[in-house]
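Today's session is about reading a structure prediction critically. Students often jump straight to the picture, but the first step is always the sequence itself: look for stretches that repeat, for charged clusters, for runs of hydrophobic residues. Only then move on to the predicted structure, which in these notes is written as discrete structure tokens rather than atom positions. Here is the chain we will use throughout the hour.
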Amino acid sequence: DIEIYTSQDALKEYFYGDGTKIKVQIWSGLYKKELFENIRFPVGKVYEDGYVTPKILARSSKIVFLDYPGYVYYMREGSYMHSTLSNEKIAAYDLYKDIYPIVCNNYPVFKKLIIEKWIFQYIYTYRTIKKDSNYTFIQKKKWYEKIYNELLVDQNFLLQQDLSNSCKRQLKLFLFSPILFNLYIDFVELRGNING
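Below is the predicted structure for this chain, in token form.
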């Protein structure tokens, strides 16, 4: 089974598909060398494929999907991807902010999706750090301040975008008070567990 995609169609499959055709993992494809011009894998972060693959797809004129399992990928227990929270995993909070310029300037149809993922990734990372027991208060505070301050700097741009009401509400509450935001989300999750 062979499928040929335009750049926009490949990005649509990448963002909205089930991950069986256009994958985030860079090892799942063959690429022309010139597609990587001025694109580098970020240093000190995991999930680095997520920073590169959408940029490569946005630059490609044609993407061919071949339904052939020609590569065996072994996932071992204890690998970095199966490890607990680390500074390198936390550092990937800015993935969607990083890919925004290349993807959205070329394909504005993905703008709302990328911006909402950008916001939710920041907030999700903040909450993940909060729940992790391996980090000291001082380590958490460092990350909290970094994530919060970056969202604060970007708030005018983000709030001027076409966001869902839910996303806009969560961003505003988070920027007003991350503590109140966490209490609100904890309450919503608790209520869901009680009702569900």
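Discussion point for the tutorial: Helices lie at 7-16, 49-59, 87-90, 95-106, 111-131, 137-159, 165-176, 178-195.
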